[in-house]
Amino acid sequence: MEVVVYTKETCSLCEKAIDLLEELKKEYRFTYTLVDIYQDDALLEKYQIMIPVVEINGEEVDFGIISAEKIRKRLLLK
């Protein structure tokens, strides 16, 4: 399962999203990759006011204040 978190430096919501994913890793088997939107102009334009954005298997699942329930549902679908 491929989980990507679009983020930026000094982002408290991003830190909360990462903490949530770390907790969910105790229940589900997955890894995640952090992508800094400031390293790619297209990503910056697309996500600048939405971050963090959690993408699972290529699908944007949640953004902003990340919901554990939304992430759980997508992880269960595999």
TrEMBL record:
Pfam families, A to Z: Glrx-like
InterPro entries in UniProt: Glutaredoxin-like, Glutaredoxin-like_YDR286C, Thioredoxin-like_sf
PANTHER family in UniProt: GLUTAREDOXIN-LIKE PROTEIN C5ORF63 HOMOLOG
Name the UniProt record assigns to this protein: Glutaredoxin
Species this chain originates from: Priestia koreensis
